[in-house]
């Protein structure tokens, strides 16, 4: 590919999404999990509504479209937003970031479940098996779960499962309407924020201490993580293709580990990064990325 203008944007997306897990930790210093989920969606929605207005994009008004976008909002923003924040009250941001790397495998499982008439290929089954071993390695299954409560691990996996389901759902029920990405994400986040607002009003503030660090963390999580990063990822998709755009999932766990260790002094056991690599290897095999790289190197 001669046009490499997508590379800085690609790196920016990986850094922002990789930092999301430390931003969640910071937000939890003064917000509850409901507050973190609402804050990131509300800030992201405000950012993208402004962008859509400046670029002259209209938001969808058809009820069917809005219903499907609301389902996507539940799967991509509401449930994972609450679940990741809830889990991070007990687990490290590093572990949350690594578990997030299971998303491509969950997406593949969701696609195979939806398309039941299509039999899974051998490399897909092998990739899923490798990825499953990677998850067990991340968790250190041979010695129990350590300091990580089982419910928190299950909540993280449930959040990632929602991500996996959202992609085939979006492709089937939203993409046919051929809406602009800005319109889709702005509407989706607005619906997510509206859904979360009652929960925020009921129990959103953990304590009335508003320090600069946590406030900046929430701004980063909402404005960039739930706002601009989506637009940047769409931009990468337009220039470099969907395969490269989706591969940012391989960069985010690395960023999550680095920032968690440097800025939060979180401890990393040897099996967490090793397991993350195994998970990513399984995802690469399942998505035929390794075969694709071999084909490129051979010709």
UniProtKB/TrEMBL annotation:
Family: Belongs to the EamA transporter family.
Name of the molecule in the record: EamA-like transporter family protein
Localization (cell): Membrane
Bilayer topology term: Multi-pass membrane protein
Major subcellular location class: membrane
Domain EamA: 6-139, 151-285
Membrane-spanning parts: 7-28, 34-54, 66-87, 93-114, 126-145, 151-170, 182-202, 214-232, 244-264, 270-286
GO CC, one annotated term: membrane
Organism: Candidatus Planktophila sulfonica
């Amino acid at each position: 590919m001669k046009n490499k203008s997508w590379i800085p944007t690609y790196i920016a997306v990986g850094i922002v999404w990789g930092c999301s897990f430390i931003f969640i930790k910071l937000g939890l210093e003064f917000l509850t999990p409901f507050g973190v989920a609402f804050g990131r969606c509300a800030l992201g929605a405000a950012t993208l509504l402004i962008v859509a207005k400046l670029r002259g994009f209209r938001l969808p008004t058809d009820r069917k479209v809005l219903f499907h976008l609301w389902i996507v909002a539940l799967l991509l923003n509401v449930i994972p937003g609450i679940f990741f924040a809830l889990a991070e009250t007990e687990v490290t941001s590093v572990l949350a970031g690594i578990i997030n790397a299971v998303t491509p495998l969950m997406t593949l499982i969701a696609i195979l479940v939806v398309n039941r008439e299509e039999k899974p290929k051998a490399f897909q089954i092998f990739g899923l098996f490798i990825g499953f071993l990677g998850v067990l390695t991340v968790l250190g299954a041979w010695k129990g779960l350590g300091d990580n409560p089982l419910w928190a691990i299950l909540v993280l996996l449930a959040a990632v499962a929602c991500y996996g389901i959202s992609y085939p759902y979006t492709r089937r029920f939203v993409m046919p309407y051929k809406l602009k990405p800005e319109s889709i994400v702005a509407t989706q986040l607005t619906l997510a924020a509206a859904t979360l607002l009652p929960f925020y009003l009921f129990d959103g503030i953990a304590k009335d201490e508003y320090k600069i660090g946590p406030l900046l963390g929430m701004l980063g999580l909402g404005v960039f993580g739930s706002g601009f990063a989506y637009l940047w990822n769409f931009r990468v998709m337009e220039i470099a293709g969907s395969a490269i755009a989706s591969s940012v999932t391989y960069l985010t766990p690395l960023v999550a580990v680095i920032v968690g260790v440097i800025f939060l002094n979180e401890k990393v056991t040897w099996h967490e990064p090793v397991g993350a690599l195994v998970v990513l290897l399984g995802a690469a095999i399942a998505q035929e990325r390794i075969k694709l790289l071999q084909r490129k190197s051979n010709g």
